[in-house]
Amino acid sequence: MIIIVTGVSGSGKTTLGSLLAKNLHLPFYDADDFHPTANIEKMTHGIPLTDHDRWPWLDHLAGNIQKWESSGGGILACSALREVYRERLQTVPDIIWLHLKGMKEVIAERMAARKGHYMNPDLLDSQLNTWEEPGYGYQMDITKTPEEMVKEVLSYPEISQAASHIGIIGMGVMGKSLALNFAEKGVPVSVYNRFVEGKEENIASQFAEENTEFPLLKGFDDLAGFLSSLQSPKKILLMIPAGAAIDQQIAQLESSLQAGDILIDGGNSFYEDSNRRVKDLEEKGLHFVAMGVSGGEEGARRGPSLMPGGSREAFDILAPYLQKIAAKDTHANPCVDYIGPAGSGHFIKMVHNSIEYAEMQALAEIYQLMKYGLKLTYPEISKVLKNWANEGLRSYLLEITADILLVRDGREYLLDMVLDKAGQKGTGSWSLTTALNFQVPYSPLSEAVTARMLSSNKSNRVELAEYYGHRFGAFAEDKVILIEKLKNAYALTRFINHEVGFDLMKTVSEKEGWNLNLSEIARIWTNGCIIRSTMMEQLVGIFKDNTSIFTTKSLKSKIKEMKLDLTYIVGLGLQHSHALPVMSAAANYFLSRITTDSPANLIQAQRDYFGAHTYQRKDDPSGAFFHSDWKASVPHPS
Ligand SMILES: NC(=O)C1=CN([C@@H]2O[C@H](COP(=O)(O)OP(=O)(O)OC[C@H]3O[C@@H](n4cnc5c(N)ncnc54)[C@H](OP(=O)(O)O)[C@@H]3O)[C@@H](O)[C@H]2O)C=CC1
Ligand SMILES: O=C(CO)[C@H](O)[C@H](O)COP(=O)(O)O
Prior knowledge:
alpha/beta; 4 domains; 7-stranded mixed β-sheet; N-(1-d-carboxylethyl)-l-norvaline Dehydrogenase, domain 2; binds NADPH dihydro-nicotinamide-adenine-dinucleotide phosphate; 29 helices; 5-stranded parallel β-sheet; binds ribulose-5-phosphate; Rossmann fold; 16 strands
């Protein structure tokens, strides 16, 4: 939405425009700020501008208007005294013109009261003489207060009924937060939630009513009304559960959409479903953008990490909007970029979540070791984690864990009241099946999923704990030394978790021909998402020059040092009956990756013994396959 406030100098364009911008959450621009120095010099000295002076300035503004419109709109205060000037600015359709009108005396008084403005009050006569009365737009009486004028403007049909740039379906945790994020960035947004009689009624309209500070947010409880409120091409973001709900929602929408309209699935859909949907909808002339969204409720509201894949053409249309709502990296660049074709955006979100699972499990293991092994109190553990954050291990998950440990429920810690059965919705398990399908070793990350499964069978655990008399053992070692070793063990586990996830992305990208940019993915994950961390910032540089964390020269000596502590901690923990699924799998994974002589020669021999599966020989570089009659060759004791 572009609104241009016109009128002679001193008529109150800047006051009304900036107040309106605040109310509509749109950026405000003052055309005076775009004048070249020569024009300012002239006006300061009371010399009227000629058309020759104005054309380059107007052309510059006209170009900006197009840019502002494509990135969600803006409000411009510009004298635009003559019709030819206004025509020059009319570079996008549907500009809303507000023309400020008032008596010369009132304007002169205001100009005289103005401090620090370069416009010489003597120019008022020249301005009034140049002014050509427009036959369109809204004529506004400047004797009203700016607040009264804003109220009046907000009731104009062009604004109150303006077509929305984005539509969101699904007013759950994420949909609501994203809607407010868009509205706050000045993007006109319509929202819709399904109507289930007696259960889910008027969710979207109520939501809009609860958020009247965003006049460009409109709520609809009927799908037809929602769809007709959207600008063409329609851009509809689905924030509903993955699976059948997405297919049903697409089926319900399809007949009302036109070629070129864009559907975006921002949920945690399985990427193979997204592969299919991108293809199916493309064949029907519709664009489908399968977009991973991370950051939870707070991220969605304040700035998520966004991973859009699928239709490139649609991404280019959506980019200005997504860039507005996304988190910003350390260089203030938005944490969003086109990921790749088909379901690649959902694929990397799935991998993100499996790293998330492993990072959470690693912290759970650290917490367990500190609580039962080191006998630290919750505030002590929290303090250690905060220190680690300040010593280079900062991550969102580490920080929230340090917070969680301090929360009380009456006299108890709330954490002690939380039932130890971990839930999961699918992305973790899908990552494992995908890794298996692509033959990518995934043990540390898969252990995190398995740990959640094991935790969920609480009654069986309780029964077996009693049966075997399981108790966590306490460590006798020096606490300070052990905490340092734990820190290194945790740090290396994190590198390994990320190596595993990025390795899956590298392999699938090569096999699917997606050309995923690992460094750019790391950049998108440096802010907004759940696995954001200082390590992720390091990975941006690492994946520019390396395809593996393990071959990064600058990390080699540190990794070697941390390896000693990881293996020590895993050994110590296991000896003291602490299950450490992710840390031990990480140690095993790393050792297996750096071993020259693996015992797999025995596996091959066994396979050949019982099934004639053949094997290759170390002393035959040709790679030929051999079979031996192992049984017949066993020397019998004489
Ligand atoms: N919560 C989080 O931290 C994150 C969630 N996600 C993903 O985003 C998506 C939405 O999550 P979230 O907002 O948390 O979920 P919620 O459960 O909070 O909201 C789900 C929304 O979908 C609607 N809905 C449910 N079933 C259907 C259906 N069959 N047809 C149409 N609408 C339906 C619900 O409407 P009603 O109220 O009528 O039931 C509700 O508005 C999911 O895919 C989730 O995995 C992604 C990143 C983070
Ligand atoms: O996508 C998310 C964050 O990025 C979800 O919040 C998270 O993955 C929840 O998944 P689960 O319920 O399986 O733990």
